[in-house]
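General statements about sequence and structure are easier to judge against a single worked case. When preparing material for the folding task, we compiled for one chain both its residues and its backbone structure tokens. The amino acid sequence and the backbone structure tokens for this protein are reproduced below:
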Amino acid sequence: MCPECPKCKRNEFRIIKGICQSCYVTEYNRQHAPPRKHPKDIQLSNLQLEFLTGSLLGDGWITNLKYGRKSPCFGIDRKQDDLEYLKWQFSFVENLCSRPIVLKDKFNKTTKKTQQHCLFTTRYLPSLLDLRKLWYPNEIKIVPPSLKLTKLIMQVWYCDDGS
């Protein structure tokens, strides 16, 4: 039987430099973490706010604060036929994202078919918290009563859901 780790009191791991392997790896990663690539928060421009509002009227969403998260992220998911439109949308929030557009296959339980999708999500940003509270006051998406429409908001909304 292995000796007990003084930090976490587990004894199922081997001891490295006086602590268990799991605690050693955690401590090593904490000390050798690369410097932060992005600032913790970015203030949204008026153009980005209008774009996000138009997208939220359409297919956009803001995540909830599950799992102890303090900040939400924004995202849009579309079928791959609309990839060019998604690239245009991505251009508005590119500085808020840590990764490019993702292409993936999704299984549709209703049709029992696999469909090709493309999506992007922003980073988890505190500046999105006010939008989350405005659009999801009771964890259900609503149109805020104080919403004022602009040309860009209506254009994005029309391109998402208009006819």
